[in-house]
Design goal:
Shape: globular
Number of domains: 1
Helix content: 55-70%
Structural class: mainly alpha
Largest sheet: 3 strands, antiparallel
Strand content: 5-15%
């Protein structure tokens, strides 16, 4: 359980990105920020996600500072939306699912650790750029990743991290991810959107030599 939670924590955080863009999609997919597995992520949907977070930040203490620190929120939210689909695909291929009970238990544990529901929401908003109504989605993704890591024997070691990374790369390739160039280019091998790479991706792709050198 401890190993699963530790792995999930590595994969959950993703807070940075590019300025919110308002233009329509590319020529191939007008109005789409990205197409993943044949499913469109509409620009309007992405903008709504960003607006939801901005609204929550504006109402929070030190909201102005949070907004300044997440000036690239648009690309970060699109990255998260793509990664959600990649994780879902990898988990589905491995036969991994999350039950409602597991979700409730993990969320309850987080609430207890944070010192209450409001404190948990404040933490997710400040540290991960997640609005209160998006908590369940993030927690579910963490559980999926932890169970997926366990199912493929990806321990929290350089070798295990590389194995998990390869699993996500394979899933990403199979989804034929096409991103509106206004938001950057998706890289299946590096699991990057433009120049944006989430902290957990960096952790997963560290080589053994880098680990040994303390990089």
């Amino acid at each position: 359980m401890h190993r699963r939670r530790r792995t999930a924590i590595l994969v959950s955080a993703a807070l940075a990105a590019a300025p919110l863009l308002t233009a329509c999609g590319n020529d191939a997919h007008p109005g789409a920020a990205a197409v993943v597995g044949g499913e469109r992520i509409e620009v309007s949907t992405l903008q709504a996600e960003v607006a939801n977070v901005r609204d929550a930040q504006a109402k929070a203490p030190q909201g102005e500072q949070m907004i300044k620190e997440t000036g690239q929120l648009g690309r970060a939210k699109l990255f998260d939306m793509i990664v959600d689909k990649v994780v879902e695909k990898a988990a589905d291929d491995a036969g991994v699912t999350v039950t409602r009970k597991e979700l409730q238990e993990r969320r309850a544990a987080y609430v207890e650790q944070a010192g209450g529901e409001q404190a948990l929401a404040a933490t997710f908003l400040q540290q991960r750029g997640v609005a209160p109504d998006g908590l369940d989605s993030v927690v579910e993704r963490e559980i999926l990743i932890g169970k997926l890591a366990e199912s493929i024997g990806a321990a929290n070691t350089p070798d295990g991290q590389q194995r998990l990374n390869k699993t996500f790369t394979a899933a990403a390739k199979s989804l034929d991810i096409d991103v509106n160039p206004r938001y950057g280019t998706w890289n299946n091998q590096k699991l990057e959107l433009g120049e944006y790479r989430a902290p957990w991706i960096s952790q997963l792709t560290k080589s053994p030599s880098a680990e040994e050198q303390g990089a």
